[in-house]
Amino acid sequence: MATKTEKKNLIRQYIIDSAKAYSEKLAGKTFLYVYKNEFFEVSFPSDHFLHLTGVETSLDKKNFYRKAKKKQLTNQQFYFSARYPYANARKKLPCLMRLSDLTTDVVCILKDLHTQSIVYKLSVTNLEFTLGLVEDEDDKGNKRSKYLLPMSLRVNDKSVENSDDGEVVDFIFSKSASDLKYNELLVCDSEKKLIESVRMLIDDKLIAEIDNKE
After folding, report:
1. pTM: predicted TM-score of the whole model, two decimal places
2. Residue 4: left if φ>0, alpha if ψ -120 to 50, beta else—which one?
3. What confidence tens digit (pLDDT) does each residue in 93-104 have?
């Protein structure tokens, strides 16, 4: 059986590896999900990484992510609790390392995912793990941007059964947060047409490529 130190070392390495993947594949980008006649945009800010790890820390959210990304996070800077047990982190972190799968593979969009503490109006799942999304709001509930933000990573918890509805994604686009329009197509259902309401969000060259495939 693994010792307490060995367990901590394992989780620390998972956090560091996950921060590296988050930094390289998600942070600094935005993603556009299109399904049926609906769409939404997702951003992955640095201060939301901690929410997804399943551990507690005395560090502030941005500093936790910064230290993990730089491989400076120590075993003393995070801990487990009744609310965030070791077993939960051990289950979540391998999926957190693969979080970008939810931007590059065909996924399901879940509506009104009910959990014990919150109802996520929109979530993204590959049926193995699910990302619960929330509005980008300040402490007073004022909307700061149009983007949805990651808040909860759930693994094998019957998310589909606990949701009111679900749809398979038709398109996923990405862009650098500094770009005005989406310029990379990550997922495409060749049998679906791009809805008019999102065409203005996408680079003209990419629009032309998509139209030519139809």
Report:
1. 0.94
2. alpha
3. 999 999 999 999
